[in-house]
Amino acid sequence: MGRWRLPSLLLTHMARTHENCNFNLFSHLEHLQSLKSPFFDRCFFFNLRHFSAIPHRLCTELDSGSVDFHPNYGLADEDEEIGKIPVKAYFLSTSIDLKSMQAENLTHVVPPSSRSTKYIALRYSDFPSEISALGVHGNVSHCRYMVVFHYGSAVLFNIEDHEVENYLHIIRRHASGMLPEMRKDDYAIKEKPLLAEDMQGGPDYIVLKNLDTDSVRVIGSVLGQSMALDYFVSQVDCLVEEFAGINRAMEKTGTFTMDRTKLIQLVGKANSNLADVILKVGLFERSEIAWRDAKYAQIYEYLREEYEVAQRFGNLDFKLKFVEHNIHFLQEVIQNRRSDLLEWCIIFLLTVENVISVYEIVRDSTGVSLDLACRLGNF
């Protein structure tokens, strides 16, 4: 039995050492958990599992040599759920003061990676303020982002429904021209580090190999433009409907009662909508981030195709041409109406002038006759 004594002592020593290490590790983690820090509630980067005497399936397969080791082995099913990031796009006003908003939320502003001044990106994380001050924010998928555009759109990333109103309130303090009914659209991002390509499309979501702040900016820019385009299309639809009503009334009565001032207002509204889409929203301005990196260009082009940005602008342009055609027609009708009025005024003035001339002629002829009669009577 003496030959088994040394191995027995070694095993006993190893077991005691292992137990002490586990005790110290879990004691330290329980102390951190007791602090109730939000960092450990939302941004916990690893999970702990109790030790078990039952061998794990991965360990068994590794021992048998039937599987190649990978850091994410066995987590593919969980990535499908955990990696889904909700995206909410809103159009709530016609203008947002980005300078005042940036000054008020300076600690949350993400440093810009391009020269564009049409939007700002804000980042909110659950790290303590002391850690965030050092520039540590953790993984993008564990933070909340808000991309705000000066033309009235806002895109929220990784923000739950019950938290949305708090973030929108931050925007409303710097917004003007609030809409009576806010527009909303939902999207989603799935992050899969094992994806063979940089991105992959899906129904109402996009799968990215790696989500970073530039990806957030590119996705936010397309969704923000899409929401703004939807608003301007609705404005042009109202113009089309108004002119359709005028045409139906003209079909029945043969005339219309719109004055020139109202028509000029409609012209200004149509032109301002087109100018806002092209200049303010920057629908045809290529993203600087997408121009620098093909990975972001692929995301940018895919989302523009997914949301049919070019086709929708084509429909908007066609409707504006219909409005423009009606405006030209009504302007000609009003101009002809004014010309007719001027012609009648000229005819009236000529008639008055002729009446006066005839009166003067009659008066002069009557006076001559009287003088002649008086002279004859004297003789």
Form type = elongated
Report the major sheet.
7 strands, mixed
In DSSP terms, counting alpha (H) and pi (I) runs of 4 or more, how many helices?
A: 12
First-residue to last-residue Cα separation = 185 Å
Number-wise, the strands total 7
Poorly predicted spans: 1-7, 17-82, 128-137
Helix/strand class: alpha+beta
User: What is the helical fraction, as a range of percent?
Assistant: 55-70%
Strand adjacency order, main sheet: 2-3-4-1-5-7-6
Give the mean pLDDT.
Answer: 77
Topology as H/E string? HHHHEHEHEEHEEEHHHHH
Strand percentage: 5-15%
> In angstroms, what is the radius of gyration?
39 Å
Task: Name the descriptors.
379 residues, single chain, 7 strands, alpha+beta
Which SSEs are present, and which pair or pack?
Elements lengths: L4 H30 L3 H5 L14 H8 L11 H7 L1 E13 L1 H7 L14 E6 L4 H4 L11 E6 L3 E5 L3 H12 L2 E17 L7 E4 L2 E4 L4 H41 L6 H21 L7 H5 L1 H13 L2 H70 L1
Parallel strand pairs: 5-7
Antiparallel strand pairs: 1-4, 1-5, 2-3, 3-4, 6-7
